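User: Fold this; tokens only.

Assistant: Input:
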Amino acid sequence: MPVQPMPYTLFCKKCGWQQTWLPGSDCIPASAHPNHCPRCANPEIEKRIASLFEQLFKGKRC
């Protein structure tokens, strides 16, 4: 049975870039997310559960 994932935020500690994702299903293509920071090219992007503010105002559907 498919389970919708929690909204999450990808962020870069080096430059402060972040993007919040609001998945519509558990089938998300790997190409939908960057594998490095688009601003500074840092390969160490981190992931955390999105806050309510991020979910309401900064989210991007995927």
